[in-house]
Design goal:
By secondary structure, this protein is of the alpha/beta class. The chain folds into 2 domains: 8-148, Response regulator (Rossmann fold), CATH 3.40.50; 160-216, Arc Repressor Mutant, subunit A (Orthogonal Bundle), CATH 1.10.10.10. It has 11 helices and 8 strands. It has helices at 17-27, 42-51, 75-85, 100-108, 120-124, 126-136, 143-149, 160-171, 177-184, 188-202, 207-216; strands at 8-13, 33-39, 56-59, 64-66, 69-72, 90-95, 113-116, 140-141. The chain has a 6-stranded parallel β-sheet, sandwiched between helices. The protein has a two-stranded antiparallel ribbon with strand order 4-5. Strand 1, helix 1 (17-27) and strand 2 (33-39) form a beta-alpha-beta unit. Helix 8 packs across helix 11 (207-216). It is globular. It starts with 7 loop residues before the first strand and ends in a 14-residue tail after the last helix.
Length: 230
């Protein structure tokens, strides 16, 4: 269900202390957001999540697993495992890495988006992005990332499963990913992946916009005039 009044709890994985402190200072200016922990190693993320309720994770890429293990933590395994263990949690990747193949690989993990560190415009409204991700199960990509992920000059289409999911979302406003997963007898991470693919295909960032765009394109039946963007 949509969460409109709760103060969301943010965890940050970032090995540069100055960057992490800057993110915390920026986000703490929003009274709806609280940064509850910061980690320099992925092992700490696992430990914090066991003891500290967390709504949204901000994850950097290429960081060591632990002080004793300098190898980068396996992000493409880690994110699906996090979403399996904590199905209500949201994951936003924030990184300096700008390899196109990496964008798609992160998308396929079920993450809620990918922001490049040099994307100043997105960083300036990071609090709004995090709130939208938490409250609306939205997906957000830096424009540069979205450009890579989106195939230009091609009319989007939905698979049968994607149309089924979007129809359920349209008929049951506020339904959560977990509830959708229970209805379709799949993992919540599978729902996240399908929604991410829908958003990218339609060039939108959230459920309401996806419904409107799908109806405008004739991919989903229904009238768009009475739909409001939250």
């Amino acid at each position: 269900m949509k969460k409109t009044q709760e103060k969301i709890k943010i965890g940050i994985l970032e090995d540069h202390i100055a960057t992490a402190m800057g993110l915390k200072a920026q986000l703490d200016l929003n009274p709806r957001i609280s940064v509850v922990w910061m980690a320099q190693y992925y092992q700490q993320v696992e430990e914090f999540l066991q003891d500290q309720p967390t709504n949204v994770l901000i994850l950097d890429i290429g960081l060591p697993y632990s002080p004793n293990d300098p190898e980068p933590y396996p992000i493409f395994h880690a994110i699906p495992e996090l979403l399996r263990a904590y199905p209500e949690i949201k994951v936003l990747v924030v990184s300096m890495h700008s390899r196109p193949a990496l964008f798609k690989a992160v998308k396929d993990t079920g993450a809620n988006g990918y922001i490049l560190k040099h994307d100043g415009e997105s960083f300036n409204r990071l609090d709004e992005i995090l709130l939208d991700i938490y409250e609306n199960d939205s997906i957000y990509y830096s424009p540069e990332v979205l450009k890579v992920l989106t195939t230009p000059n091609q009319l989007p289409s939905l698979t049968n499963r994607q149309a089924q999911i979007l129809s359920l979302v349209r008929s049951q406003p506020g339904i959560s990913n977990v509830e959708l997963a229970n209805i379709l007898v799949v993992a919540p991470s599978t729902i996240r992946n399908h929604l991410s693919d829908i958003y990218i295909k339609l060039g939108v960032n959230n459920r309401a916009s996806a419904i409107i765009k799908a109806q405008q394109l004739g991919l989903l039946p229904g009238d768009v005039e009475n739909l409001q963007l939250d």
